[in-house]
Amino acid sequence: MSTKTVRVLVVICSTRPGALGPAVGTWLTETIGPRAVDLGVELAPIALGDLGLPFLDEEEHPSSGVYRHEHTQRWSAMVDAADGFIVVTPEYNYGMPATLKNALDYLGREWAWKPIGFVSYGNTSAGTRSVQHAKQVVTTLRLVPLGSTVAMRISDAVKEERVHPDAALVGAAVGVLDELVRLAHALRPMRERVRPGLPPGPLPGSYTRRLVPDDTSEVTVLQRCCWLDEALANDTLAVPALHESPEQVREWLATWHSTGLWRDGRLLGMVRARRTGTDWHVGRLGVVPDLRGQGLGRWLLRTAEAAVEPHCRRIVLSTGARSRRNIDLYRSEGYESASSGSGDGTVCLTKDLTRQLQVEPFQVR
After folding, report:
1. Would the pLDDT of 263 be above 70?
2. CA–CA distance, 242 with 279 (Å, rounded to integer)
3. Which of 3-7, 33-37, 328-332 has the lowest mean pLDDT?
């Protein structure tokens, strides 16, 4: 269901002058480039030699996320923005190069729950012992190594410092990308769970975050399943949330203050709000049908109210004139009917914020 672009960092490890790594990296990106376009993947090649990473020189442990040096902060931003990695690595003395180990050791949370594939090259073993060495390290960082790999024997695939692989290596490279993209999508909920600063939700394991245009597909599906009951209750299919295209959803996600309640990558509910003059408009309050009756709608409503902007004098919302459950919820939360009905079959309810402000000082005393 996800329409998010997958960003894959192609990491070229060797820093030795005249190394074969850049040529292998160029071959790889050119080979899998067409497939990346088909899959909606953004390939971002980076050579570790261009990063200027000295041997780990941060005072704080990487798990703290406290980085004092600009080179660490730059590396952290690159890795954090990526959904997965393909490492192009040689084999040095039965192991991975020190540059790769050092780059891995710099960071912590940024690696977690992202897939990593390997393209190795070497002589006798085609670099496979480097990959085996690296897998011991990456799994400790909660990276998920692929089963698919590309192992290139230099004597067979390199002529005059250019890579001339056979069809088997080309197929293996495309296979690495295919598997990495599948894992990147599957692991996305796990990656989101380790994002810092996500407020917990009302259900065990749930969390909230602001909805953004990249959440268009999830929001579109949630609206379809939530507002069908509204259409049935009010005997009309003229419910905007049922007919909005993904493009229209993306457009309003960019302008409304919208909050989503999530668990394991599933959007459980949402609410949106924005200021118009001195009114704080609340709308699109919905909860997945299988979790209704557990107080999630009330919790989301209060979340939207807590975000009210300064100088707003009232909160305004509307619902179907026959949506008794919605109306009862809003009235139990202090809303009063502002109209008995309108030509579009909805009713408007409001909550006077100025009255609350007048009462609060008295309660404090």
Report:
1. yes
2. 26
3. 3-7
